[in-house]
Amino acid sequence: MSLGLHKKCLESLSARIAGRLPEIEVKNRMFLEDWTVMLRTAGKILPQNGEFKNKVEQYVSEAEKIILASQWLFDSYCGNNELLSFVQTTVVLEILLGDKTSSDAVGLQRLLSNRCAYLIGDGQKQREELLEQFEKIYEVRSRIVHRGKSRLTGDERELFSTLQWMCRRVIQEEVDLLQKDVTNAQTESLGRSLRLAARKKLIPKS
């Protein structure tokens, strides 16, 4: 899924993201855009069954999830309603870390908190702190969504900042993992197939 934006729009968006989300490298967003387009094209012209097709579909799905989550996070920074922005930011984690089957079994909050803590936590102590903060964050979310909370307190605004930091870190980790997966695939049959297609000019240059 490419965002389909004009070049000037992409440049403007890149500058705004770089200014508002300094911990997410803009080049990684471009990596996601470029690879999503190329993998979709490759999926149309290369073998349509077996392991290759499964890998293409997996990478495209993961890239689209990361782009979608990034859009939700970006909106949370741009909005004027802090309550809506808070909820938008929790959606980021649900997009990237949620899983209906697993959440039905253990509960969404526990699933997200455990996955988030073990993905971005640096050691057991930080993971425990993240789990504790996550519980407080979802208490605030619950009060907003289910009780119509009207404003955030000072402490809740600090939790909101922590939540946005969590989302930035999760997105960065997910981008890094996808990039590693694609890089590893390039060294195997998928990489050889894509390079061969490019040499034959079957994949158009962006």
In short:
The protein has 206 residues and is an all-alpha fold.
How would you sum up this structure, described in words?
Helices cover 81% and strands 0% of the residues. It contains 9 helices and no strands. The longest helix has 33 residues, at 154-186. The two termini are 14 Å apart. Residues 1-6 and 20-27 have low confidence and may be disordered.
Largest sheet: none
Form type? elongated
Indicate the radius of gyration in whole angstroms: 19 Å
> Mean of the pLDDT scores?
76
Structural class: mainly alpha
- Note the run of SSEs as H and E: HHHHHHHHH
Strand content of the residues, in percent? Answer: under 5%
SSE layout and pairing:
Blueprint: H1 7-20, H2 26-45, H3 50-78, H4 82-97, H5 100-106, H6 108-120, H7 124-147, H8 154-186, H9 189-199
Helix pairs in contact: 2-3, 2-8, 3-4, 3-8, 4-7, 4-8, 5-6, 6-7, 7-8, 8-9
Keywords for this entry:
single chain; about 210 residues; mainly alpha; 9 helices; elongated; disordered N terminus
